[in-house]
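User: I'm putting together a teaching handout on how multi-component assemblies are represented. Below are the sequence lines for each component of a complex, exactly as they appear in our records. Could you produce the 3D structure of the whole assembly as structure tokens, so the students can see both representations side by side? Please keep the chain order the same as the input.
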Amino acid sequence: ILNVEQSPQSLHVQEGDSTNFTCSFPSSNFYALHWYRWETAKSPEALFVMTLNGDEKKKGRISATLNTKEGYSYLYIKGSQPEDSATYLCASDSGTYKYIFGTGTRLKVLA
Amino acid sequence: NAGVTQTPKFQVLKTGQSMTLQCAQDMNHNSMYWYRQDPGMGLRLIYYSASEGTTDKGEVPNGYNVSRLNKREFSLRLESAAPSQTSVYFCASRWDRAGEQYFGPGTRLTVT
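Assistant: Of course. Below is the structure of the complete assembly, with chains in the same order as your input.
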């Protein structure tokens, strides 16, 4: 994989549902994987920076895992709330100053 | 701390006009970045500056120039705007080549 791919592109879930998204990234020249949360009309905000294979990070109801050998990361949201509605971006970082961003997963949580 | 600030927030240009987008950060970060965001395309890197006095091309540099004026400020110039440059422009900074990036609020540019 040369690009960063995220799936699904968008999804709608009901309040209280748990959900997860996937980020696939180049496993060669890996330095770090970043997750950002991007609300409409705002700017992206960092959620997690992950560097080690097998890493798992958690912030409240949101968690992420990392597999650097196969080049994927999962983001999980437990018990989705309307305020979780946003676009979730991942970015592959090779440690060369430049990120490669995915196109994001647009999440809409319905009350 | 204001973080990363950008001016202007909105701008409308006619084809062929020029303008400079300003970005400043007060976090003492070494590296700074300019991205454009287009529907379905995600964030694409235009130019970046690893440190004061250096700049490098990103993925989509054509039609743009940049200046790293000092450690705080990184400007993006459109010399002759084209409709294809209609986009939302984000400036970002981070401490060095590792770690998270901090983004400004964006500039929405329309070229008619």
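A couple of points students might notice: Chain A has no helices and eleven strands. The mean pLDDT of chain A is 94.
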